[in-house]
Amino acid sequence: MTVRRLAILGSCIILAAAIAIRYISREAKSYCRLIPGDPTWPSKSHWDELNQTVGGNLIATTPIATPCHNSSSNALFDQEACEALRDAWFSPTTHLRHPSSPMTYQFTNNSCNPFTSPGSPCSLGYLPAYTINATTSAHLKAAVQVVKHHNIRLVTRNTGHDYLGKSTGAHALASFELIDRYDDHDNTYDGPAIKMGAGVEGLEASTFAHAHGLMVVASNGPNVDLAGGFTQGGGIGILSSRFGLAADQVLAREVVTAAGELVTTSPTSNADLFWALRGGGGGTYGIVVSMTVKAYPDTFISLAYLTVLADANASNTEDAIYAAVGTFLQSLPALVDAGVWLVWVAHPGGFLVTPAMASDLHPAELDALFQPTLDALDSLGLRYEYSSAEYPDFLAGYHASTTASWPVAKANIGGRLIPRELVQDADSLAALVTAIRLIGSQTVMSGAAFNVAGARDDVAVNPYFHKTLFSAVMSTPINYTDWAATKAAQDKLTYELLPAPAGTHTGR
């Protein structure tokens, strides 16, 4: 069954600081959402009524780390449960299963930390007051009507893969269908399609597609929901170098609007909303109930992995590694133009590609595209491990290339889109390598390389994607026992590391 979670929140939007004092109290209701404690905040009977309307799926939020805190009012303190939570804290599954726990912990404002002492405070902080475990469009419509009536903020959450913390807020509230031949009535697509409910994850969609001899553009994280912020924000997928961004795949959506109405959006129905939902930002324009996307004939997949091994005893190893990185970056246009999608990582211990993935390319063809980099590594005398393999279909390659246990909630994250022009000019390339070295020598920097230059221009995605060679991601660690250190790490990321690629002239 498809699950969509709604968080009921409270917030106040400050529209203008210059509003005359005598008007503030009179106008406050126009701009501010209710929060618990306000005189008109819904009573328990109101929440009980909503709970009945949504089939008992209303959940009062309890912070996930509540078992780790033994305040006098907390009857849920459980040291054994706390230890189990700490052990599983960095697994995405831990937060996926909780109705309100974000994978980007810093957006909770450290309000209930599982790693601090039992006597430390635990409060909702920026978490929602209530969540609706919505399984039908009727639940979604009921939620919208209630928050409109009571002037309460509403946010949506699918799986919680949200680097911007948009599915958290203070004091607030999967199905499939195969379409053999989709007719979108504007003559831009004629082929198979899959209709999926909101809440369907990449691995689930890929498994269903595989059973019908098809594949879809999915994220590299198998538990990322496809209909949520992934496609609504653009969506760099494993097959994007071949078929475009995830937003380019969308043929239609069913959406509950801010008016509480269930509507269909497509090129010919509510076309403006359809456009906005393809790249305009997740959780912004409506609550997506279902999504219909293009599907493609299944085919074989090749994967390649490269690990460059740093030699601690050689004083010039880092110089050599980043000389090879320069060659690798120069080869990226040829790789992505051939339909390859890949992730590379630079870190204090070396450099790796994990993995490179391509459909309809045999390992020998993938090897040839990596050969300039391998030749550079050989000439520089660097130790490395390189391997490639072929898989019979997309699902097999997807299983081999992804993991559901990638750690989350460990880092402050920022990023930039890096255009291909930077690797096609010697001076710009040198500046880019210098920036990557600056960051990679201190922390972890990664890049997801792709080519969507030929993608559709009738979507709401940032047009800079069309000239992007890779999406660079930088991170600094979260220190759960020293929040001042976490704040310093955030400042380092914001003011020192993130500006470095901008010095290469056009990185954004």
UniProtKB/TrEMBL annotation:
Required cofactor(s): FAD
Domain of life where this protein originates: Eukaryota
Native organism: Anthostomella pinea
Any matching Pfam family: FAD_binding_4
InterPro entries hit by this protein: FAD-bd_PCMH, FAD-bd_PCMH-like_sf, FAD-bd_PCMH_sub2, FAD-linked_Oxidoreductase, Oxid_FAD_bind_N
Top-level taxonomy: Eukaryota, Fungi, Dikarya, Ascomycota, Pezizomycotina
Molecular function in Gene Ontology: FAD binding; oxidoreductase activity
Family that this chain belongs to: Belongs to the oxygen-dependent FAD-linked oxidoreductase family.
Keyword annotations of the record: FAD, Flavoprotein, Oxidoreductase
Name of protein: Uu.00g002070.m01.CDS01
Domain FAD-binding PCMH-type: 124-298
